[in-house]
Amino acid sequence: MHIRFYHVDGLGRDADDGGAIFDRKTIAAFRQLGAVVDELPVLRRRALRLPTWAGRIEASRLCIAQGESGGRTILSHEATFDLAGVVNADALIVHNYFPRFRFPGRKGLELYYRLGALDHYRRAFDRTPSIFFLSYRERDAAEEDFPSIRGRTTVIPPPPAPVIPSARNMEIVHVSGSEGWLPKRLSRLTDDEIARFGKAGFVIGDFGTHPASAFGLINDRFTVGFKLKLMQMIACRDIIASCADIADEMERIAPGYPFWRQVASVDEALEYFRDIRDRLTVEEIDAAFDKAAPRWRVPSWNDHGEAILHALSAT
Question: Is 68 a residue whose pLDDT tops 60?
């Protein structure tokens, strides 16, 4: 299959943010499965329009691929969705469903992402036969807002990097992710929060190349999209505390996950981790994970690519 893959480029996008990593690995999975992929960057500039976050696509710098028999066109990320009618898109990949963006205590930011968002998604949904979501929560929300898309949606949670975690470490707290996006910068740990973890005997760190099973903290205060770090924490069998709503994803992907909690603050996460560390042995924790893990549905990137190509072949 020949894939024309339009993806976001520019306008402050961090090359190491979750969306950029997702696009690169999705393209690599397609190629591994034998698909021919044209990578087509979509450059944007700031513009006075709604929704403001979408910007204005630089039409003069846009490469419009010529259609061909058997080819499929994918728009990856909602900031590319203005092209749905221009390039006759076969599929959309919704990274973030902004009509339901939530950031407690930041009403202005919620308004910024929500204002004009419903119409933006409606126009693209009406023109495109297949719609992929990274998040089960957001697919369900979009189907509530647009009942007509039911039957045309597929959820494709981003897979983790392949890992065989080393022996559980009861001192490490995995915290991962870029800070190029404003909601992430507003969510980053403060020096005082990091110091409180250190005082309690914990060390904040990223996964690295050979991660241990440990604790995992999702410190994002906002809820939108899928937390790529969550899938890596599941693969590592981390004890997870999240400031964002991950309940739907946990129920669908890792039912019966033995140790996770949604928390109202980083300090509550610290107390949760300290309680687990002080109350349970490593052997007890690992036994609980061994019992629950067979029920989980954690895809590989090959599974991910096959799911998308299979859905496209049916359109």
Answer: no
> What's the count of helices (H) and strands (E) in the chain, helices before strands?
11, 12
Phi, psi dihedrals of residue 84, rounded to the nearest 5°? -55, -45
Separation CA 259–CA 32 (nearest Å): 35
Convert the pLDDT of each residue in 150-185 to its tens digit: 999 999 999 999 899 999 999 999 998 777 889 999
| CB of 37 closer than 8 Å to CB of 31 | yes
Q: According to the model, what pLDDT value does residue 55 have?
A: 86
CA distance 201 to 23: 37
Is the pTM above the cut of 0.90? yes
Tokens found for residue 101: 């963006």
- Identify residue 68 by its one-letter amino acid code: E
The terminus-to-terminus CA distance of the chain in angstroms comes to: 13
Residue closest to 252 by CA, chosen among 135, 89, 161, 162: 135
Give me the DSSP letters along 51-63.
Answer: SGGG-EE-GGG--
Write down the domain spans for the chain: 2-158+300-313, 172-295
What the block records as the tokens of 182 is 């404003």
In whole angstroms, what separates CA 180 from the centre of its chain? 15
- DSSP letter string, 267-298: HHHHHHHHHHHHH--HHHHHHHHHHHGGG---
Q: What topology does CATH give the domain 2-158+300-313?
A: Rossmann fold (3.40.50)
Digit-coded pLDDT (tens) for 185-234: 999 999 999 999 999 999 999 998 899 999 999 999 999 988 889 999 99
Q: Given CA atoms 105, 120, 40, 45 in this order, what sign does their dihedral have? A: negative
How far apart CA 157 and CA 144 sit, in angstroms, is 20
